[in-house]
TrEMBL record:
Sequence ranges assigned to domain ABC transporter in this UniProt record: 2-237
Source species of the chain: Microbacterium marinilacus
Keywords recorded for this protein, A-Z: Amino-acid transport, ATP-binding, Cell membrane, Membrane, Nucleotide-binding, Translocase, Transport
Classification via PROSITE patterns: ABC_TRANSPORTER_1 (PS00211), ABC_TRANSPORTER_2 (PS50893)
Keyword field contains Membrane: yes
Name listed for the protein in its UniProt record: Methionine ABC transporter ATP-binding protein
């Protein structure tokens, strides 16, 4: 488990991380999401103390990193692998040599580090490219080398800082599949730093939204999408503004579906039972946290709105009123 307790970090007059407390359960793929400059990358560097916080505690696997001296901290960092956005590979070394580097620095015997490097290259699908030069690889292959290198020391936590932002969509999908497999097969806690909500939707069990150095929302995605007013949910399902063509006298509602409700003919049944015509203004259905979920925007004639909303809420659905007398 990773625990941040009232952690802050400043750079001069700039507050990069502002009194953040966050718990990341073991074994999850956890997304830290936010726009550029929100403080999410600084937050990642505080997890493994590449940057030391000005205040607060950082605990990883029951070890308080912020209480360690430099020697003990170096040892503790071996349990935290790091994958960088720009790969940070050495062109002077082969693919295998890059994966071996951390083990070499730790004094691991040559035969053992070579065997470990080969195992990690096999895991990421590059077992046949160990003798290749870095310049011979595509961007996606270089990212796989970075992942293999981060895994070489057998960490329990894997940090990934915008590791897919420079990749094309097809390569991004393959890298995310690799992270998913690493999480499932090795049981690692994977912490993904990203500004891309598609990454969160594709692979994360939980997420935290960071704005101006603060965590403004966090939790399991299956819980978040059931939370009224959730900012994360609005970004996971961006339906946009209400169309100008919508009837200004009608009630406009957003219905969030999750789990077993996502595949039920809810809207058709409500329209039939209440003998009312509803207009579909937008809809998105995704796999979120391993569960089918979605959001639908409807325009409901004002006279029937109260009964329709009560019916939907009675079925356990999250209904938010965007326009109409009950809008709040």
């Amino acid at each position: 488990m990773i625990s941040l307790e009232h952690v802050s970090k400043r750079y001069g007059d700039i507050v990069a991380v502002d009194d953040v407390s966050l718990t990341i359960p073991s074994g999850q793929v956890y997304g830290i999401v936010g726009q550029s400059g929100a403080g999410k990358s600084t937050l990642a560097r505080l997890v493994n103390l590449i940057e030391r916080p000005d205040s607060g505690r950082v605990v990883v696997d029951d070890v308080e990193l912020t209480a360690l001296n430099d020697t003990d901290l170096r040892a503790a960092r071996r349990r935290i692998g790091m994958v960088f956005q720009r790969f940070n590979l050495l062109n002077s070394r082969t693919v295998r040599g890059n994966v071996e580097l951390a083990l070499e620095i730790d004094g691991t015997p040559r035969a053992r580090r070579q065997a470990r490097a080969q195992d990690m290259l096999d895991l990421v699908g590059l077992g046949h490219r160990g003798d290749a030069g870095i310049h011979e690889l595509s961007g996606g292959q270089q990212q796989r080398v970075g992942i293999a290198r981060a895994l070489a020391a057998n960490p329990t936590v894997l940090l990934s800082d915008e590791a897919t932002s420079a990749l094309d969509p097809e390569t991004t999908a393959s890298i995310l599949d690799l992270y998913r497999r690493i999480n499932a097969e090795l049981g690692l806690t994977v912490l993904l730093i990203t500004h891309e909500m598609d990454v969160v939707k594709s692979i994360c069990h939980s997420a935290a939204l960071v704005e101006h150095g603060r965590v403004v929302e966090s939790g399991r995605l299956t819980d978040v999408i059931r939370t009224p007013g959730s900012r994360l949910t609005s970004q996971l399902f961006p339906l946009g503004p209400i169309p100008q063509s919508a009837d200004p006298t009608a009630t406009v509602i957003d219905i969030t579906f999750a789990g077993g409700t996502a595949d039920r003919p809810v809207i058709a049944r409500v329209a039939r039972d209440h003998a009312v015509d509803v207009s579909l203004l937008g809809a998105l259905v995704e796999q979120i946290g391993g569960t089918q979920a979605g959001r639908t925007r409807l325009e409901v004639p004002a006279p029937a709105a109260a009964a329709v909303i009560a019916d939907l809420r009675g079925q356990g659905l999250l209904v938010e009123v965007l326009q109409g007398e009950d809008a709040r």
